[in-house]
Prior knowledge:
The complex is a heterodimer of chains A (273) and B (288).
Chain A: H1 16-19, H2 22-38, H3 42-58, H4 63-68, H5 71-87, E1 93-97, E2 100-103, H6 104-129, H7 134-145, H8 155-185, H9 195-201, H10 203-226, H11 245-267
Antiparallel strand pairs in A: 1-2
Helix pairs in contact in A: 2-6, 2-7, 2-11, 3-6, 3-11, 5-6, 7-8, 8-10
Chain B: E1 5-15, E2 21-32, E3 37-41, H1 48-55, E4 63-68, E5 71-73, H2 80-89, E6 90-93, H3 106-116, H4 121-134, H5 150-162, E7 168-172, H6 180-197, E8 200-204, H7 208-211, E9 216-221, E10 224-229, H8 231-236, H9 238-244, H10 250-260, H11 272-284
Parallel strand pairs in B: 3-8, 3-9, 6-7, 7-8
Antiparallel strand pairs in B: 1-2, 1-4, 4-5, 9-10
Helix pairs in contact in B: 3-4, 3-5, 4-5, 5-6
Amino acid sequence: MMRDITLGQYFPGTSVLHRSDPRMKLILTLIFIVFVFLAKSLWAYVWLFVFTFSLLIVSRLPVKVILKGLKPVLFIIAITVIFNLFLTKGEDLLFECKFIHIYFEGVMFAVYMIIRIVCLILGTSVILTYTTSPVDLTDGIEQLLSPLKKIKIPVHEFAMMMSIALRFIPTLTEETEKIMNAQKARGADLSSGGLIKRAKALIPILIPLFVSSLRRADELATAMECRCYRGGDGRTRMKRLKYSPRDLVLFLVFAAFGTGIILLNIFIPYLVI
Amino acid sequence: MTPFIKAENVCFSYNTGEGKKIEVLKNVSFEIAKGEFVAVLGRNGSGKSTLAKLLNMILVPDSGKIFIDGKQISADTMTEDDVYEIRRKIGMVFQNPDNQLVSSVVEEDVAFGPENLGIPSEEIRKRVDDALDEVGMSEYARHSPHLLSGGQKQRIAIAGIIAMSPSCIVFDEATAMLDPSGRKEVMATIERLNKEKGITVIHITHNMSEAAMADRVIVIDGGRVAMSDVPEAVFSDVGKLRSIGLDVPQITELFYELKKAGLDLPDRIIDAGKGEDALLSFFEKPRN
Protein backbone atom coordinates (compact mmCIF):
# COMPACT_ATOMS: atom_id res chain seq x y z
CA MET A 1 0.00 0.00 0.00
CA MET A 2 2.54 2.55 1.13
CA ARG A 3 5.11 1.48 -1.42
CA ASP A 4 3.01 3.01 -4.18
CA ILE A 5 3.97 6.50 -3.17
CA THR A 6 6.15 7.81 -5.96
CA LEU A 7 5.95 11.48 -5.10
CA GLY A 8 9.43 12.56 -4.16
CA GLN A 9 11.12 9.34 -5.18
CA TYR A 10 14.33 8.95 -7.14
CA PHE A 11 14.53 6.99 -10.39
CA PRO A 12 18.13 6.15 -11.33
CA GLY A 13 19.07 6.97 -14.91
CA THR A 14 21.63 8.52 -17.22
CA SER A 15 19.77 11.36 -18.94
CA VAL A 16 21.05 14.94 -19.14
CA LEU A 17 18.89 15.85 -16.19
CA HIS A 18 20.24 12.94 -14.15
CA ARG A 19 23.82 13.89 -14.82
CA SER A 20 23.74 17.62 -14.27
CA ASP A 21 24.93 19.22 -11.08
CA PRO A 22 22.44 19.13 -8.19
CA ARG A 23 23.21 22.74 -7.31
CA MET A 24 22.29 23.79 -10.83
CA LYS A 25 19.13 21.72 -10.64
CA LEU A 26 18.14 23.40 -7.40
CA ILE A 27 18.60 26.81 -9.01
CA LEU A 28 16.70 25.69 -12.12
CA THR A 29 13.84 24.43 -9.96
CA LEU A 30 13.52 27.85 -8.39
CA ILE A 31 13.61 29.51 -11.81
CA PHE A 32 11.01 27.05 -13.05
CA ILE A 33 8.64 27.72 -10.14
CA VAL A 34 8.89 31.47 -10.64
CA PHE A 35 8.02 31.21 -14.34
CA VAL A 36 5.15 28.78 -13.73
CA PHE A 37 3.50 31.55 -11.74
CA LEU A 38 4.40 34.25 -14.27
CA ALA A 39 2.50 32.59 -17.14
CA LYS A 40 -0.65 34.58 -17.92
CA SER A 41 -1.82 34.16 -21.49
CA LEU A 42 -3.10 31.06 -23.25
CA TRP A 43 0.05 30.64 -25.34
CA ALA A 44 2.29 31.08 -22.31
CA TYR A 45 0.41 28.22 -20.67
CA VAL A 46 0.71 26.08 -23.79
CA TRP A 47 4.44 26.84 -23.88
CA LEU A 48 4.71 25.91 -20.19
CA PHE A 49 2.85 22.66 -20.78
CA VAL A 50 4.97 21.71 -23.80
CA PHE A 51 8.19 22.58 -21.99
CA THR A 52 7.28 20.51 -18.93
CA PHE A 53 6.41 17.47 -21.00
CA SER A 54 9.56 17.81 -23.10
CA LEU A 55 11.50 17.78 -19.81
CA LEU A 56 9.70 14.57 -18.91
CA ILE A 57 10.65 13.04 -22.26
CA VAL A 58 14.26 14.24 -22.12
CA SER A 59 14.59 12.75 -18.62
CA ARG A 60 13.64 9.31 -20.03
CA LEU A 61 11.66 8.53 -16.90
CA PRO A 62 8.88 5.91 -17.04
CA VAL A 63 6.07 8.27 -18.11
CA LYS A 64 3.24 6.02 -16.94
CA VAL A 65 4.64 5.66 -13.44
CA ILE A 66 5.27 9.38 -13.20
CA LEU A 67 1.72 10.23 -14.27
CA LYS A 68 0.37 7.73 -11.76
CA GLY A 69 2.38 9.54 -9.13
CA LEU A 70 0.16 12.56 -9.77
CA LYS A 71 -2.86 10.72 -8.34
CA PRO A 72 -2.55 12.16 -4.84
CA VAL A 73 -2.75 15.64 -6.39
CA LEU A 74 -6.00 14.89 -8.21
CA PHE A 75 -7.95 15.82 -5.10
CA ILE A 76 -6.36 19.26 -4.91
CA ILE A 77 -6.87 19.74 -8.63
CA ALA A 78 -10.53 18.74 -8.32
CA ILE A 79 -11.16 21.25 -5.52
CA THR A 80 -9.40 24.05 -7.40
CA VAL A 81 -11.34 23.28 -10.55
CA ILE A 82 -14.69 23.26 -8.73
CA PHE A 83 -14.02 26.54 -6.96
CA ASN A 84 -12.76 28.29 -10.06
CA LEU A 85 -15.54 26.92 -12.23
CA PHE A 86 -18.38 28.05 -9.99
CA LEU A 87 -17.01 31.11 -8.30
CA THR A 88 -15.26 32.96 -11.12
CA LYS A 89 -17.38 35.83 -12.41
CA GLY A 90 -16.99 36.98 -15.98
CA GLU A 91 -18.87 38.39 -18.93
CA ASP A 92 -19.37 35.39 -21.18
CA LEU A 93 -22.07 33.28 -19.51
CA LEU A 94 -22.00 29.66 -20.73
CA PHE A 95 -24.44 27.90 -18.44
CA GLU A 96 -27.03 28.96 -15.92
CA CYS A 97 -29.15 26.88 -13.61
CA LYS A 98 -30.74 28.49 -10.55
CA PHE A 99 -27.77 29.70 -8.45
CA ILE A 100 -25.08 28.08 -10.59
CA HIS A 101 -23.43 30.35 -13.14
CA ILE A 102 -20.59 29.10 -15.22
CA TYR A 103 -18.70 31.65 -17.25
CA PHE A 104 -16.22 31.07 -20.07
CA GLU A 105 -13.60 32.87 -17.97
CA GLY A 106 -14.21 30.36 -15.18
CA VAL A 107 -13.66 27.41 -17.51
CA MET A 108 -10.46 28.93 -18.86
CA PHE A 109 -9.23 29.76 -15.39
CA ALA A 110 -9.90 26.20 -14.25
CA VAL A 111 -7.95 24.87 -17.23
CA TYR A 112 -5.09 27.26 -16.43
CA MET A 113 -5.06 26.07 -12.85
CA ILE A 114 -4.90 22.42 -13.92
CA ILE A 115 -1.95 23.19 -16.18
CA ARG A 116 -0.29 25.24 -13.49
CA ILE A 117 -0.59 22.60 -10.77
CA VAL A 118 0.32 19.67 -13.02
CA CYS A 119 3.33 21.52 -14.48
CA LEU A 120 4.46 22.73 -11.09
CA ILE A 121 4.49 19.27 -9.59
CA LEU A 122 5.66 17.41 -12.66
CA GLY A 123 8.33 19.97 -13.49
CA THR A 124 9.86 20.25 -10.05
CA SER A 125 9.89 16.49 -9.56
CA VAL A 126 11.36 15.82 -13.00
CA ILE A 127 14.05 18.47 -12.60
CA LEU A 128 14.85 17.66 -9.02
CA THR A 129 13.46 14.75 -7.02
CA TYR A 130 12.98 12.09 -9.70
CA THR A 131 16.37 12.66 -11.31
CA THR A 132 18.54 13.59 -8.33
CA SER A 133 19.56 10.97 -5.80
CA PRO A 134 18.80 12.02 -2.22
CA VAL A 135 22.53 12.06 -1.53
CA ASP A 136 23.24 14.44 -4.40
CA LEU A 137 20.28 16.53 -3.38
CA THR A 138 21.45 17.01 0.18
CA ASP A 139 25.01 17.58 -1.06
CA GLY A 140 23.68 20.24 -3.40
CA ILE A 141 21.67 21.94 -0.67
CA GLU A 142 24.63 21.79 1.70
CA GLN A 143 26.97 23.35 -0.83
CA LEU A 144 24.52 25.98 -2.02
CA LEU A 145 23.82 27.06 1.54
CA SER A 146 27.39 26.71 2.80
CA PRO A 147 27.95 30.51 2.83
CA LEU A 148 25.41 30.54 5.67
CA LYS A 149 27.95 28.68 7.82
CA LYS A 150 29.69 32.03 8.22
CA ILE A 151 26.75 33.30 10.24
CA LYS A 152 26.76 30.14 12.39
CA ILE A 153 23.87 28.35 10.75
CA PRO A 154 24.55 24.58 11.12
CA VAL A 155 24.19 23.81 7.42
CA HIS A 156 26.13 20.53 7.54
CA GLU A 157 24.08 19.24 10.46
CA PHE A 158 20.82 20.03 8.68
CA ALA A 159 22.03 18.31 5.53
CA MET A 160 23.09 15.27 7.54
CA MET A 161 19.73 15.12 9.29
CA MET A 162 17.97 15.35 5.98
CA SER A 163 19.99 12.60 4.34
CA ILE A 164 19.48 10.31 7.33
CA ALA A 165 15.74 11.02 7.28
CA LEU A 166 15.68 10.11 3.59
CA ARG A 167 17.72 6.98 4.24
CA PHE A 168 15.25 5.80 6.88
CA ILE A 169 12.01 6.40 4.98
CA PRO A 170 11.92 2.91 3.42
CA THR A 171 13.11 1.28 6.66
CA LEU A 172 10.42 2.95 8.71
CA THR A 173 7.76 2.28 6.07
CA GLU A 174 8.61 -1.40 6.27
CA GLU A 175 8.52 -1.22 10.05
CA THR A 176 5.12 0.49 10.04
CA GLU A 177 3.73 -2.27 7.88
CA LYS A 178 5.14 -4.90 10.22
CA ILE A 179 3.65 -3.23 13.29
CA MET A 180 0.29 -2.80 11.55
CA ASN A 181 0.23 -6.48 10.70
CA ALA A 182 1.27 -7.41 14.23
CA GLN A 183 -1.55 -5.31 15.69
CA LYS A 184 -4.02 -6.68 13.17
CA ALA A 185 -3.00 -10.18 14.19
CA ARG A 186 -3.89 -9.19 17.75
CA GLY A 187 -7.33 -8.15 16.57
CA ALA A 188 -6.81 -4.42 16.04
CA ASP A 189 -9.39 -2.93 13.73
CA LEU A 190 -7.72 -0.28 11.61
CA SER A 191 -10.15 0.23 8.79
CA SER A 192 -13.63 0.68 10.17
CA GLY A 193 -15.41 3.35 12.18
CA GLY A 194 -15.41 7.10 11.97
CA LEU A 195 -12.49 9.46 11.75
CA ILE A 196 -11.95 9.65 15.51
CA LYS A 197 -12.15 5.91 15.99
CA ARG A 198 -9.64 5.38 13.20
CA ALA A 199 -7.31 8.01 14.58
CA LYS A 200 -7.47 6.28 17.94
CA ALA A 201 -6.71 2.95 16.30
CA LEU A 202 -3.44 4.46 15.06
CA ILE A 203 -2.11 4.98 18.58
CA PRO A 204 -1.06 1.33 19.07
CA ILE A 205 0.86 1.67 15.80
CA LEU A 206 2.50 5.01 16.45
CA ILE A 207 3.78 4.25 19.94
CA PRO A 208 5.80 1.13 19.00
CA LEU A 209 7.01 2.98 15.91
CA PHE A 210 8.23 5.86 18.06
CA VAL A 211 9.95 3.60 20.55
CA SER A 212 11.72 1.64 17.86
CA SER A 213 12.74 4.81 16.01
CA LEU A 214 14.35 6.14 19.16
CA ARG A 215 16.21 2.87 19.61
CA ARG A 216 17.32 3.00 15.99
CA ALA A 217 18.48 6.59 16.42
CA ASP A 218 20.53 5.61 19.45
CA GLU A 219 22.17 2.68 17.66
CA LEU A 220 22.82 4.76 14.56
CA ALA A 221 24.45 7.48 16.65
CA THR A 222 26.77 4.91 18.24
CA ALA A 223 27.58 3.41 14.85
CA MET A 224 28.36 6.87 13.47
CA GLU A 225 30.61 7.65 16.41
CA CYS A 226 32.40 4.35 15.84
CA ARG A 227 32.99 5.50 12.30
CA CYS A 228 34.66 8.64 13.57
CA TYR A 229 31.85 11.04 12.80
CA ARG A 230 32.32 14.39 14.50
CA GLY A 231 30.32 16.90 12.53
CA GLY A 232 31.26 18.80 9.40
CA ASP A 233 34.67 20.12 10.51
CA GLY A 234 37.61 18.46 8.82
CA ARG A 235 35.31 16.22 6.82
CA THR A 236 36.09 15.60 3.16
CA ARG A 237 33.79 14.21 0.49
CA MET A 238 34.34 11.36 -1.91
CA LYS A 239 32.43 13.14 -4.64
CA ARG A 240 33.11 16.79 -5.17
CA LEU A 241 30.46 18.66 -7.09
CA LYS A 242 31.68 20.23 -10.29
CA TYR A 243 29.78 22.36 -12.81
CA SER A 244 30.18 21.09 -16.37
CA PRO A 245 29.33 22.66 -19.75
CA ARG A 246 26.17 20.53 -19.59
CA ASP A 247 24.94 22.64 -16.70
CA LEU A 248 25.49 25.85 -18.62
CA VAL A 249 23.51 24.49 -21.58
CA LEU A 250 20.70 23.46 -19.26
CA PHE A 251 20.73 26.89 -17.70
CA LEU A 252 20.46 28.53 -21.15
CA VAL A 253 17.54 26.23 -22.04
CA PHE A 254 15.73 27.32 -18.89
CA ALA A 255 16.55 30.95 -19.58
CA ALA A 256 15.00 30.51 -23.02
CA PHE A 257 11.94 28.95 -21.42
CA GLY A 258 11.54 31.90 -19.04
CA THR A 259 12.06 34.45 -21.80
CA GLY A 260 9.49 32.59 -23.88
CA ILE A 261 6.87 32.89 -21.12
CA ILE A 262 7.51 36.63 -20.71
CA LEU A 263 7.46 37.29 -24.46
CA LEU A 264 4.26 35.28 -24.98
CA ASN A 265 2.64 37.16 -22.10
CA ILE A 266 3.55 40.52 -23.61
CA PHE A 267 3.19 39.98 -27.33
CA ILE A 268 0.31 37.48 -27.60
CA PRO A 269 -1.83 38.47 -24.63
CA TYR A 270 -4.64 36.21 -25.77
CA LEU A 271 -7.09 35.09 -23.08
CA VAL A 272 -5.33 36.71 -20.15
CA ILE A 273 -7.57 36.28 -17.12
CA MET B 1 55.81 -9.24 21.77
CA THR B 2 53.24 -6.91 23.31
CA PRO B 3 49.66 -8.00 22.73
CA PHE B 4 47.54 -5.83 20.44
CA ILE B 5 44.78 -5.47 23.00
CA LYS B 6 45.30 -5.86 26.71
CA ALA B 7 42.74 -5.36 29.45
CA GLU B 8 43.76 -5.28 33.11
CA ASN B 9 41.18 -5.56 35.89
CA VAL B 10 38.57 -3.62 33.98
CA CYS B 11 35.38 -2.78 35.90
CA PHE B 12 32.34 -1.11 34.47
CA SER B 13 28.91 -0.31 35.86
CA TYR B 14 25.82 1.39 34.54
CA ASN B 15 23.90 3.95 36.54
CA THR B 16 20.23 3.24 36.82
CA GLY B 17 17.74 6.05 37.16
CA GLU B 18 17.47 5.75 40.95
CA GLY B 19 21.16 6.31 41.61
CA LYS B 20 21.85 2.59 41.87
CA LYS B 21 24.73 1.03 40.03
CA ILE B 22 24.61 -2.20 38.12
CA GLU B 23 27.99 -3.85 37.82
CA VAL B 24 28.40 -5.20 34.32
CA LEU B 25 32.09 -6.07 34.23
CA LYS B 26 34.05 -7.15 37.27
CA ASN B 27 37.85 -7.26 37.10
CA VAL B 28 38.03 -8.42 33.53
CA SER B 29 41.53 -9.13 32.22
CA PHE B 30 42.54 -10.60 28.90
CA GLU B 31 44.99 -10.22 26.06
CA ILE B 32 44.47 -10.46 22.35
CA ALA B 33 47.38 -10.83 19.96
CA LYS B 34 47.72 -9.12 16.61
CA GLY B 35 45.98 -11.08 13.86
CA GLU B 36 44.15 -13.33 16.26
CA PHE B 37 40.55 -14.43 15.67
CA VAL B 38 38.80 -14.44 19.03
CA ALA B 39 35.20 -15.42 19.64
CA VAL B 40 33.45 -14.03 22.69
CA LEU B 41 30.61 -16.09 24.13
CA GLY B 42 28.21 -15.29 26.91
CA ARG B 43 24.56 -15.13 27.74
CA ASN B 44 22.47 -12.00 27.19
CA GLY B 45 23.44 -9.36 29.72
CA SER B 46 26.78 -10.97 30.52
CA GLY B 47 28.65 -7.82 29.50
CA LYS B 48 29.94 -8.83 26.08
CA SER B 49 28.71 -5.77 24.21
CA THR B 50 29.86 -3.46 26.99
CA LEU B 51 33.30 -4.97 26.70
CA ALA B 52 33.32 -4.25 22.98
CA LYS B 53 32.32 -0.63 23.49
CA LEU B 54 35.11 -0.14 26.03
CA LEU B 55 37.70 -1.06 23.42
CA ASN B 56 36.99 1.90 21.14
CA MET B 57 36.14 4.35 23.89
CA ILE B 58 32.44 4.61 23.29
CA LEU B 59 32.34 3.76 26.98
CA VAL B 60 35.02 4.45 29.59
CA PRO B 61 35.83 1.91 32.34
CA ASP B 62 35.26 2.78 36.02
CA SER B 63 38.61 1.29 36.92
CA GLY B 64 41.29 -0.84 35.32
CA LYS B 65 43.44 -0.26 32.28
CA ILE B 66 43.02 -0.99 28.61
CA PHE B 67 46.01 -0.95 26.27
CA ILE B 68 45.69 -0.79 22.52
CA ASP B 69 48.90 -1.42 20.60
CA GLY B 70 50.88 -0.97 23.80
CA LYS B 71 49.40 2.44 24.63
CA GLN B 72 46.96 2.91 27.45
CA ILE B 73 43.68 4.46 26.43
CA SER B 74 42.12 6.89 28.85
CA ALA B 75 39.74 9.76 28.41
CA ASP B 76 41.84 12.04 30.62
CA THR B 77 45.17 11.97 28.84
CA MET B 78 44.06 11.61 25.23
CA THR B 79 43.12 14.39 22.85
CA GLU B 80 40.03 14.13 20.69
CA ASP B 81 42.20 13.20 17.71
CA ASP B 82 43.72 10.29 19.65
CA VAL B 83 40.24 9.01 20.46
CA TYR B 84 39.27 9.05 16.80
CA GLU B 85 42.51 7.32 15.90
CA ILE B 86 41.53 4.50 18.31
CA ARG B 87 38.08 4.31 16.70
CA ARG B 88 39.70 4.11 13.29
CA LYS B 89 42.01 1.32 14.42
CA ILE B 90 39.22 -0.67 16.08
CA GLY B 91 36.24 -0.80 13.78
CA MET B 92 32.92 -2.08 14.97
CA VAL B 93 30.07 -3.85 13.20
CA PHE B 94 26.75 -4.09 15.02
CA GLN B 95 23.83 -6.45 15.09
CA ASN B 96 21.21 -4.62 13.08
CA PRO B 97 22.51 -3.79 9.61
CA ASP B 98 19.75 -1.22 9.06
CA ASN B 99 20.79 0.84 12.05
CA GLN B 100 24.38 1.36 10.99
CA LEU B 101 24.02 2.35 7.37
CA VAL B 102 23.98 6.12 7.02
CA SER B 103 23.44 6.73 3.34
CA SER B 104 20.89 5.68 0.74
CA VAL B 105 23.62 4.73 -1.72
CA VAL B 106 25.94 1.81 -0.97
CA GLU B 107 29.21 3.44 -2.04
CA GLU B 108 28.36 6.70 -0.28
CA ASP B 109 27.83 4.72 2.89
CA VAL B 110 31.17 2.98 2.56
CA ALA B 111 32.74 6.40 2.01
CA PHE B 112 31.25 7.78 5.24
CA GLY B 113 34.10 6.65 7.51
CA PRO B 114 37.00 7.81 5.32
CA GLU B 115 35.18 11.12 4.74
CA ASN B 116 35.05 11.64 8.49
CA LEU B 117 38.80 11.02 8.65
CA GLY B 118 39.40 13.86 6.23
CA ILE B 119 41.03 11.76 3.53
CA PRO B 120 41.37 13.35 0.04
CA SER B 121 38.64 12.48 -2.50
CA GLU B 122 40.74 10.37 -4.87
CA GLU B 123 42.06 8.25 -2.01
CA ILE B 124 38.51 7.73 -0.67
CA ARG B 125 37.35 6.60 -4.12
CA LYS B 126 40.12 4.02 -4.20
CA ARG B 127 39.47 2.79 -0.67
CA VAL B 128 35.73 2.47 -1.31
CA ASP B 129 36.28 0.45 -4.48
CA ASP B 130 38.80 -1.79 -2.74
CA ALA B 131 36.58 -2.30 0.30
CA LEU B 132 33.55 -3.19 -1.80
CA ASP B 133 35.69 -5.57 -3.81
CA GLU B 134 36.94 -7.14 -0.58
CA VAL B 135 33.42 -8.02 0.56
CA GLY B 136 32.28 -8.97 -2.96
CA MET B 137 29.73 -6.20 -3.29
CA SER B 138 31.27 -4.12 -6.10
CA GLU B 139 28.34 -4.66 -8.44
CA TYR B 140 25.98 -3.11 -5.90
CA ALA B 141 28.00 0.11 -5.49
CA ARG B 142 25.23 2.35 -6.85
CA HIS B 143 22.35 0.44 -5.26
CA SER B 144 20.18 1.48 -2.39
CA PRO B 145 20.91 -0.58 0.74
CA HIS B 146 17.27 -1.12 1.70
CA LEU B 147 16.74 -3.38 -1.31
CA LEU B 148 19.58 -5.72 -0.32
CA SER B 149 19.40 -8.85 1.83
CA GLY B 150 20.50 -8.82 5.47
CA GLY B 151 23.77 -10.56 4.69
CA GLN B 152 24.53 -8.12 1.88
CA LYS B 153 23.75 -5.13 4.10
CA GLN B 154 26.04 -6.49 6.77
CA ARG B 155 28.82 -6.91 4.19
CA ILE B 156 28.31 -3.25 3.22
CA ALA B 157 28.67 -2.33 6.89
CA ILE B 158 31.89 -4.35 6.99
CA ALA B 159 33.13 -2.61 3.84
CA GLY B 160 32.42 0.72 5.55
CA ILE B 161 34.77 -0.30 8.33
CA ILE B 162 37.45 -1.79 6.04
CA ALA B 163 37.57 1.51 4.14
CA MET B 164 38.94 3.11 7.30
CA SER B 165 41.80 0.53 7.20
CA PRO B 166 41.45 -0.74 10.77
CA SER B 167 43.83 -3.15 12.49
CA CYS B 168 41.01 -4.84 14.35
CA ILE B 169 37.28 -5.29 13.78
CA VAL B 170 34.84 -6.09 16.56
CA PHE B 171 31.69 -7.87 15.40
CA ASP B 172 29.02 -7.29 18.01
CA GLU B 173 26.57 -10.10 17.29
CA ALA B 174 26.86 -9.12 13.65
CA THR B 175 25.33 -12.39 12.48
CA ALA B 176 22.48 -12.57 15.00
CA MET B 177 19.81 -11.09 12.75
CA LEU B 178 20.78 -12.91 9.58
CA ASP B 179 19.36 -16.01 7.94
CA PRO B 180 21.66 -19.05 7.48
CA SER B 181 22.86 -18.01 4.02
CA GLY B 182 23.50 -14.45 5.25
CA ARG B 183 25.49 -15.86 8.16
CA LYS B 184 27.58 -17.93 5.83
CA GLU B 185 28.36 -14.92 3.61
CA VAL B 186 29.36 -12.79 6.57
CA MET B 187 31.41 -15.51 8.27
CA ALA B 188 33.27 -16.20 5.02
CA THR B 189 34.05 -12.49 4.76
CA ILE B 190 35.23 -12.34 8.36
CA GLU B 191 37.48 -15.37 7.94
CA ARG B 192 38.98 -13.97 4.77
CA LEU B 193 39.72 -10.60 6.40
CA ASN B 194 41.40 -12.39 9.28
CA LYS B 195 43.43 -14.87 7.23
CA GLU B 196 44.33 -12.77 4.19
CA LYS B 197 44.52 -9.23 5.51
CA GLY B 198 45.69 -10.15 9.01
CA ILE B 199 42.97 -8.08 10.66
CA THR B 200 42.45 -8.96 14.30
CA VAL B 201 38.87 -10.15 14.74
CA ILE B 202 36.79 -10.14 17.89
CA HIS B 203 33.56 -11.93 17.12
CA ILE B 204 30.82 -11.69 19.73
CA THR B 205 28.23 -14.35 19.03
CA HIS B 206 25.63 -16.76 20.31
CA ASN B 207 26.29 -19.19 17.54
CA MET B 208 28.56 -22.03 18.67
CA SER B 209 29.61 -23.22 15.24
CA GLU B 210 30.78 -19.69 14.47
CA ALA B 211 32.75 -19.63 17.71
CA ALA B 212 34.32 -22.95 16.70
CA MET B 213 35.88 -21.21 13.69
CA ALA B 214 37.93 -18.91 15.96
CA ASP B 215 41.53 -19.33 17.15
CA ARG B 216 40.41 -18.80 20.71
CA VAL B 217 37.15 -18.57 22.62
CA ILE B 218 36.61 -16.25 25.58
CA VAL B 219 33.54 -17.07 27.67
CA ILE B 220 32.13 -14.22 29.75
CA ASP B 221 29.80 -15.05 32.59
CA GLY B 222 28.35 -12.59 35.07
CA GLY B 223 30.85 -9.89 34.10
CA ARG B 224 33.88 -12.14 34.52
CA VAL B 225 36.07 -14.08 32.14
CA ALA B 226 34.97 -17.65 32.83
CA MET B 227 37.00 -19.50 30.22
CA SER B 228 39.63 -18.56 27.67
CA ASP B 229 41.15 -21.25 25.51
CA VAL B 230 41.20 -22.81 22.04
CA PRO B 231 37.67 -23.79 20.96
CA GLU B 232 38.44 -27.53 21.27
CA ALA B 233 39.29 -27.12 24.94
CA VAL B 234 36.41 -24.78 25.76
CA PHE B 235 33.80 -26.90 24.08
CA SER B 236 35.02 -30.18 25.54
CA ASP B 237 34.03 -28.85 28.97
CA VAL B 238 30.37 -29.40 28.18
CA GLY B 239 29.35 -29.48 31.82
CA LYS B 240 30.80 -26.07 32.63
CA LEU B 241 29.37 -24.47 29.51
CA ARG B 242 25.91 -25.80 30.34
CA SER B 243 26.13 -24.49 33.89
CA ILE B 244 26.90 -21.04 32.43
CA GLY B 245 23.82 -21.42 30.25
CA LEU B 246 25.54 -21.89 26.93
CA ASP B 247 25.21 -24.54 24.27
CA VAL B 248 28.00 -26.44 22.59
CA PRO B 249 28.17 -27.11 18.84
CA GLN B 250 25.77 -29.89 17.86
CA ILE B 251 28.56 -32.25 16.87
CA THR B 252 30.31 -31.77 20.23
CA GLU B 253 27.05 -32.42 22.04
CA LEU B 254 26.49 -35.60 20.03
CA PHE B 255 29.95 -36.88 20.94
CA TYR B 256 29.45 -35.87 24.57
CA GLU B 257 26.21 -37.85 24.82
CA LEU B 258 27.62 -40.86 22.93
CA LYS B 259 30.62 -40.97 25.22
CA LYS B 260 28.37 -40.70 28.26
CA ALA B 261 26.54 -43.74 26.88
CA GLY B 262 29.84 -45.62 26.96
CA LEU B 263 31.13 -45.39 23.41
CA ASP B 264 34.87 -45.07 22.98
CA LEU B 265 35.16 -41.88 20.93
CA PRO B 266 37.88 -39.20 20.69
CA ASP B 267 37.71 -35.91 22.63
CA ARG B 268 37.71 -32.38 21.34
CA ILE B 269 35.53 -32.77 18.29
CA ILE B 270 34.06 -29.40 17.27
CA ASP B 271 34.00 -29.75 13.52
CA ALA B 272 31.27 -31.70 11.72
CA GLY B 273 33.68 -33.06 9.08
CA LYS B 274 36.14 -34.37 11.66
CA GLY B 275 33.22 -35.77 13.64
CA GLU B 276 32.08 -37.70 10.61
CA ASP B 277 35.55 -39.20 10.12
CA ALA B 278 35.75 -40.15 13.80
CA LEU B 279 32.36 -41.87 13.70
CA LEU B 280 33.20 -43.74 10.49
CA SER B 281 36.49 -45.01 11.85
CA PHE B 282 34.70 -45.99 15.07
CA PHE B 283 32.17 -48.13 13.24
CA GLU B 284 34.78 -49.62 10.94
CA LYS B 285 36.81 -50.77 13.92
CA PRO B 286 36.49 -54.55 14.51
CA ARG B 287 34.21 -55.29 17.47
CA ASN B 288 35.34 -57.58 20.24
